[in-house]
Amino acid sequence: MKLPKPVLWTVITLPLLGLAIATAPQQWVPHEWRATLFSWFGAGAYRALPESERYQLPEAGEICPPDFNGWRQEQDIEGVHIAAAAGCVADNPYLIAAAVKGTNNVSADTLLKSGLTPDAIVMGRDLDGDGDPDEVTIRLEVAELNGGSPDLPVPITTFDIAPGIQPGMWVFAPKSFGMSTENFESRKANPLLRAPAPAIRVEQGDRVTLILENNHYLPHTIHLHGVDHPFSADHGMPHDEAAAHGDHATHGVGTDGVAETSEMPALPGNAQIYRFAPRVAGTFFYHCHVQANVHILMGMQGMFVVEEARSNNSVQTLNIGAGQVRNSSVAVRERYDREYDLHYFDLFKKLSSTVQDYADTRLRLQAQHRDWNITEDSPNYFLLNGRSFPYTLQESLVAVKPSEKVKLRMLNGGSGNVAVHTHGNRLTVTHLDGIPLNQPAQYMRDVVDMAPAQRLDVELNTTDDGLHNYGEGVWLMHDHHEAAQTTDGIYPGGSISVIAFESYLEPNGFPRVAGSDWQKFFTAAYYRKDVPVWLDYDPGGLFGAPAAPLRPLVQALIFGAALAGLLFQLRALLPRRRPIR
Ligand SMILES: [Cu+2]
Asked: pTM (2 decimals)?
């Protein structure tokens, strides 16, 4: 017996459709149908949860890169004493020597090893005969980090703020020679080109000439925030001095760095000269003041320190990448055992990516100024001295010994407040915005708050008396805004660092941490959010991610078959087209 085709298809399709409905996951079924369906087919039986997915973490980067060049060691170069580096990644000591003596006063060998040009830091006369030069000329350029290139599909002159995290940035950089990358094979920036812009140090009363040689493709300026400087090049500097420089062209030109009120900025290929003689010592700030909402937050900012005048006080003109000051001024050494520059700032992912998304400058400008809207955005990356956790612990940890006095110069260059909280230690604020507080006005806190652009000079006294300090350890030091403890929302990240007692430092300079596995923090996968955050807490996978179940696929196949059957049946019901003869 042969069944008619529609009947045959109904016999095949209907049970298939029934099976599809009966086995559909409960969440697929509208709530009001569920009771009816359960009464027909019964409620779904308990189904075991899927296994946790197995992850194999990619190989981690080095927690502490080896110090092949011996840069970490305490050393003397050309008579300049350079303290041992606290962290495992150290600044170039030859650069420190050149920054103290001037690029015009060091040997060709030291200059070569520093990477600076001969005119990067030029020291002049000792005008008051106190044993240190009182004229200094500093030349800065502008570098783009992690920018896009028409020649490569990936950013070049890369500077990782955290493993695999490369936001576009602009920074002031010392005038240097050679390639912007480490070598021909590498895309990595040479160590002179990094965030933040170098901390600049001069001595109180110095005749400073700061020259911005704009090698970048946009206009820029330098605004000397809090630093005693004249409004126009006509003021503040004795006229014979200006004449001695043979530069009358700067007369009448503003030097406040503001494109709208004092001077036209330095256009690409041009230079802007800032001459000043700061009368007041303190911790200040410098930044570009062109389209400040964009240029400051692209990273064009650095710390500016005016050291108190003393005899034989050759200061470390540049502290690259901020961090530990390995050659402190005389006045700081009088009162403190160590000194650290701590520069906090933040970056917006959307703004930073504009230099990667477009090659055409005009499209970058449109994206930065007219498409991106700061009032509708919040920052994604939080940096301490240009890096985020875990790299902050390689470079910007505060290493201490018991019963020391340590000077921390803190700057908030970011878009929001920074609330630095110290575990195990209380900080005493000694200066606000560079101005000393008298003894009764100094205050002790475990959270110190800084408004944008504000500076705090802080004394960290490591005397274990239960008030200043609770004893030795690896004590966290972090912005207590929770967002700032993340890197684009993944914890731990942001500007987290530590106060590490030397008894808790490994010989390579990394803190001896206890607790969870640190390898994962040194993988790009962790910061790409590819792995569960507690991957290592439980080998059984209790906190892992559920493995993708096979069920949806099987379900889709059953549904697909049922649907195909239905369609086929519908087609059979349509009137047949007869071939035309
Ligand atoms: Cu600028």
From this structure: 0.86
